[in-house]
Amino acid sequence: MTKHVAVSAGEAADRLAIRELIEAYAHCADRRDAHGQMALFTPDTHFVVYMNAKDPKPSQELLQARLSLPFSPI
Length: 74
Hints:
The chain is built from three helices and two strands; from the N terminus they run ααββα. By secondary structure, it is of the alpha+beta class. The longest helix is centred in the first third of the chain and has 22 residues. It starts with 8 loop residues before the first helix and ends in a 6-residue tail after the last helix.
C-alpha cells in the first residue's frame, strides 16, 4: 500500500503544473504539433531528439528551438 505524505498547497500547485506541462507536451506529440511543443519551452531551449535508442548521436538538434523550426510558424 502507498504511504501518503502531506504536501503544502504550493507543492501541490507545482505538481499539478508539472503534470499539466507533461500532458500538454504529450498531446502535441500525439498530434505531431511541433509548434505546440515548442511553445511549451523558453525561446533559448536546446531541443534534442533521439529517434534511434542505439545511436548515441541525436536524430535532430535545435538550438533556440522556436527560431530554428525548419518550417514557417503558424
